[in-house]
Amino acid sequence: MKTFERTFVVDESTYNEPKNPYYRYYQQEKYCLKILHEFGLDGSMAHIINGHTPIKVSKGESPLKANNRLIVIDGGFCQAYQKTTGIAGYTLIYNSHGMRLKAHQPFESIAKVLSENKDIESSSNFFETEAERVMVKDTDNGKEIKETIYDLELLLTAYRQGIIVTK
Hints:
Blueprint: H1 2-8, H2 22-25, H3 29-38, E1 48-50, E2 64-65, E3 70-72, H4 79-85, E4 90-95, E5 98-104, H5 110-116, E6 122-129, H6 140-160
Parallel strand pairs: 1-3
Antiparallel strand pairs: 2-3, 4-5, 5-6
């Protein structure tokens, strides 16, 4: 809608998008924990991730809110938002070691890439690291796989003991 508004509507007062109550409370950890609980996510690894939300880095705003329970990111490669954000957005990266945000600087020009070998610069911020690597067995899918393996082992044992016979 913003593109439509800014293209076809001259009156800038119409650009203001009223915020619902979520945005009054989402920076407080206790409310994030309540929201996560409603979805059955009570562990230390649970997070709320808001996408498509530009962060005003140039004004000191951080994408990490509510004691890192809320992560607000936007790709931000769109040049139109770079004046507002001050950067070219974030990429959220999660792997078995933890989570990090990669902040991207705006792409300047092809000429600069060719003359100065200067490409898009990015910086990483590890904001949550796991004490022990998270393995497949630690995930919901991993637990289901372990249960399936256990069931298959029971079937194999029953077959070997003659309890189950083939036709």
